[in-house]
From TrEMBL:
PANTHER family in the record: SLR0755 PROTEIN (PTHR35458)
Occurrences of domain NYN (ranges): 7-165
CDD domains referenced in this protein's UniProt entry, alphabetically: PIN_LabA
Pfam family, one: NYN
Superkingdom: Bacteria
Name of the protein: NYN domain-containing protein
Length: 184
């Protein structure tokens, strides 16, 4: 499904990929992930999308975002919105679907293959639009978690589905809690 001469871009829905990897019991090594897709084709861009909490002195995702910036990723962030739902629970909303979609559509004329790291069914129209422009689309998510992290119609629409768990030995590392306890 991957060809060496393919102009390739990866689009990572940060929150979705994090949740999928966590459900499978491992963390993503983003250096290895970039190397893997560099090997599979001519990697034009590697995008990472995430919302950040405003006003917090320390955000646990900030070191990752900074590292990604310095290591060849195009990091797209926006402030997360905090609100209280109808039951009085504090909720955080930080949907990056529009930003990811616009970037993918703008890059499409210069791509042969787009790799979407998300299981969000809202991306089905994006996949259809990319395919109409002649871009092959692979989706990376998991059906091995309970419940599966990928929407069935997204998986069906993609030209290729890549099971995240199958990439574990290539781009994974043990979760941080396990690393800390095994290093002690």
């Amino acid at each position: 499904m991957f060809y060496k001469d393919d102009r390739l871009a990866i689009f990572i829905d940060g929150a979705n990929l994090y949740a999928s990897a966590k459900a499978l019991g491992f963390d993503i090594d983003y250096k290895l992930l970039r190397q893997e897709f560099d090997r599979r084709g001519k990697l034009m861009r590697a995008y990472y999308y995430t919302a950040l909490m405003e006003g917090e002195d320390y955000s646990p995702i900030r070191p990752l975002v900074d590292w990604l910036h310095y290591n060849g990723y195009c990091v797209v962030t926006k402030p997360a919105k905090e609100y209280t739902d109808t039951l009085g629970r504090r909720k955080v909303k930080g949907n990056m679907d529009i930003e990811l979609t616009i970037d993918a559509m703008q890059l499409a004329p210069r791509l042969d293959h787009a790799v979407l790291f998300s299981g969000d069914g809202d991306f089905k129209p994006l996949i259809e639009a990319l395919q109409r422009q002649g871009v092959r689309v692979s989706v990376v998510s998991t059906i091995r978690s309970q419940p599966p992290m990928i929407a069935d119609d997204l998986r069906r629409q993609a030209d290729n589905f890549i099971e995240l768990d199958a990439l574990r030995d290539i781009v994974g590392r043990p979760p941080r809690e396990q690393q800390a306890s095994s290093e002690g």
